[in-house]
Write a structure and sequence with these properties.
There is one protein chain. The strands form 3 sheets. Strands 1-2-3-4-5-6 form a 6-stranded mixed β-sheet. It has a 6-stranded mixed β-sheet with strand order 7-8-9-10-13-14. It has 243 residues and is an alpha/beta fold. It is built from 6 helices and 14 strands. α3 crosses α5 (200-208). It has one domain (2-226): 4-Layer Sandwich (Metallo-beta-lactamase, Chain A), CATH 3.60.15. Helix content is 22%, strand content 26%.
Length: 243
Amino acid sequence: MLFRQYFDAESSTYTYLIASGAGREALIIDPVKDMVPHYLKAISDLDLKLVRAIDTHTHADHVTGLGDLRESTGCTTLMGEFTQADCVSEHVREGDLLDVDGVKLRAVYTPGHTNESFSFVLNPEQPQAVFTGDVLLIRGTGRTDFQAGDAGKSWDSIVDKLFKLPDDTLVYPAHDYKGWTASSIGEEKRHNPRLANTTRAQYIELMNGLVLSNPKLMDIAIPANLACGQLPAGRNKPGLAAV
């Protein structure tokens, strides 16, 4: 399998390009608009055909590359069924299976960070990895204080769904701010400070007590991402701080 992980330093976003091999059809998860030329160069160099571009949820800290990739490659853009983005070509529901030239992803509805977040399990019959978006981060979890986030649903998504995966399943989130590139389900069960040795009630209290500033790009990113990355007329992207 061909697997590439890309990092956007401005938003601390990870993007994942996956194919069963060079010269084959490919998919990309959580692309960043400013990085699209970089992805297209990699796709060309590896002789890939991009057929699906996926966002795990409506991001608030960067502008998505979905629309630009669709325009450049003709790929299908995809999000979960509860997204408010009316520009998306295809929607997935809980349990749907995506098969891109032998690369199989199972869609898992994991609300909490937002009310429309999905995760995607690679090779679901024998799980190899899970792409968690922002719901489960490495040694952390996504904030739950806007975009219809809910701390209780975040706990349920992580503990009752993601933590049911085998312990050796690799965890690939959409963001990291401390230099981690991957984790595993077992590691997060044991070492995630928000989840290990914690009750649901304690987690909710913790998350609801966080006082966080809004992402600086939020007022531009959300409307742009609901339009698959089309920036509002007359708006230029400002500098971006970590979420």
